[in-house]
Amino acid sequence: MHPQIEEIFDDAGSRYLKIEELRLVAQYASSVPDRLATYRSLRDCELDVMQWVADQLQAEMPQEPEATLERSITNALLMLRHCGLTMLLNQDSIVKERFLNWVQPTVEVYNTQAIDARLYQLLNQRLDEALGKQMILLSPILLMAQNALLPQKVESVNGVAIGW
Amino acid sequence: MISVADLLIDKQLPGNYFAVDTYVRGDLEMGLIENRQGDRLIALPETLIQAIYAGLEKETGQASRLVLFNCGRWWGKNFYARFREQLTDYYRLSPADMAMVEFLQALQQCWIAHGWGKIDLDHTHQQRGFLVVKICNSPFARLAPQNQQTSCHLEAGILSAFFSQLTGRDLHCLQTTCESMGADCNRFVLGLQKRLEPAEGMAAIADHDSIMQQLCQ
Predict the structure, then answer these.
(1) d(CA B38, CA A104)
(2) Whole-Å CA distances, B48 to A48, B112, B137, B158
(3) Is B22's Cβ below 8 Å from some Cβ in A?
(4) Residues of B in Cβ contact (< 8 Å) with A99
(5) Which tens digits make up the pLDDT trace of B180-198?
(6) Is A5 exposed, middle or buried (CB count within 10 Å of its CB: 0-12, 13-18, 19+)?
(7) For residue B95, is pLDDT > 70?
(8) B3 CB near a chain A CB, below 8 Å?
(9) Which residue in A58, A93, A102 is closest to B1 by CB distance?
């Protein structure tokens, strides 16, 4: 759960929540059905989306060894799952501490930024088609993770302006 | 063609096993902390670490360094066994089969999760048979008596046993810089005991680079 909401509940036993605190809780609670629906959609389309991305990537980059592409795809799957959980629980620390801390050094060592940039472009494009309006909840987290991993910023989830 | 389904193991994808928020769990009612595998962890209060240093110094004098080093050896041996077990269970790979970068990532995250600071490896002198390990923000150095000697004998023992188990060679460990002496981090040199002997005791009078120069001559 979002740390700000957790903090609100720390004091909630000894007093009633203030209006602004209740507003924050209500805001999160009302978004839960959408978050759950988006999470389910993401889970259900993950394999199809990633398989399409993998096929495109392999066709566009036949010179890259399969193992290198597989590493980037595996990292992207991991990113998608962590972003999904972060979106569901509205807790940014999940993607930062569990995913970025883990994957960032390997991306730098294997120097896969060029592949990753194209992969994110394809991924965002396909996710946009598969999830439609549900991307509203997912895209800010996805962009945050992708920007942290690439030297040049990803500017749009629809994949128009990814620098690589 | 790449099959994405084949990249998953039982539909799962191993991530950061040692992420702090998932690795350390506590049961306040029982007064227990444990790791995600269910193994008990022990919390070392600062006062206890300081008392161990002071008590050993009083009881054994100069020998306290050797006592701490040997305790570290014992600890490191068990630590390696647990680390190996956790990696093998979770990633389905033994440390020996992991790519260096992934092994180092796991070790670094594991070190952080246990509150031992940030560990890094320096391979510059690997061709000459030495591995340099750097540890920053070590609680064992921070709480050690501040004097003109290196003080991370416990960690030196842990590293010696850990890397001996990993490489299958009996490696000794020598500390060359120490945060308790005002250094930016603690540096340890791992190598065969006989080859490290010329640098024994040099940390008090020479810097890390000079010691490495002496060792690599």
Answers:
(1) 28
(2) 55, 20, 18, 19
(3) yes
(4) 15-16
(5) 888 999 999 999 999 999 8
(6) middle
(7) yes
(8) yes
(9) A58
Query: Any idea of the CA torsion for A67, A73, A75, A81, to the nearest 10 degrees?
Result: -150
What pTM was computed for the model?
A: 0.86
Shortest CB distance from A102 goes to which of B3, B16, B21? B16
Cα distance between residue B195 and residue B119, in whole Å: 24
Query: Are B49 and B59 in contact, with CB atoms under 8 Å apart?
Result: no
Could you tell me the two tokens for A139?
A: 């895209």
Q: Which residues pair with B134 in a beta bridge?
A: B120, B187
List the domains of chain B with CATH numbers.
Answer: 45-216 (3.30.1380.20)
How far does the CA of residue B162 sit from the closest CA of chain A (Å)? 22
Could you give the CA distance from residue B80 to residue B73 in angstroms, rounded to a whole number?
A: 10
User: What type of residue is B96?
Assistant: A
What's the angle, vertex CA B49, arms to CA B41 and CA B105, rounded to 5? 50
In tens, the pLDDT along B129-170 reads: 999 999 999 999 999 888 778 999 999 999 999 999 999 999
Round the average pLDDT of chain A to a whole number and report it.
88
Q: What is the DSSP letter of B14?
A: -
Q: How many CA atoms lie within 13 A of A136 on its CB side?
A: 6
Share of chain B above pLDDT 70, in %: 100
The share of chain A scoring above pLDDT 70, in percent, equals 91
Does the predicted interface ipTM exceed a cut of 0.85?
no
Any idea how long chain A is? Answer: 164
* Chain-chain contact of B16 with A54 (C-beta, under 8 angstroms): no
Of B4, B105, B109, the CB nearest to A51: B4
Domain residue spans of chain A: 3-8+33-149
